[in-house]
Amino acid sequence: MRTLIASVTLALLSNLAHAGNAACEAKAAEKKLAGAAKNSFIKKCEKDAAGSASAACLNKAAEKKLAGAAKNSFVKKCEKDAAAAPAAQ
After folding, report:
1. From CA 10, how far away is CA 15, in angstroms rounded?
2. Whole-number Cα distances in Å, 11 to 26, 28, 31
3. pLDDT single digits (tens) 33-65
4. CA dist 2 to 8, 9, 66, 69, Å?
C-alpha cells in the first residue's frame, strides 16, 4: 500500500513539474539567466511550485476531514487543477 501511495505521489509531482516548467522558464528568461544558473533556477522554481500546490491540497483535504481513497482522489484532482490553472494564464 505504501508503494502505491508513493508511486501516485511521484506521478502527481512529475505532472506538476511539467506544467510548472513553462512558468519557470518565463521567469528565468525575465531574469536573463543562462546555462547552469538557469537550470538551477528552474529546478528550484519547479520544486517550490510542486511543494506549495501539494501542501495546499493536503490542507484542503484535512479541512474536509477526508481519509483513504476519498482523500487521495481529492488531492489528485486538486493538484491537477492547480497545475492547469497556471498553464491557462
Report:
1. 9
2. 24, 25, 30
3. 999 999 999 888 888 877 788 888 999 999 999
4. 10, 10, 18, 13
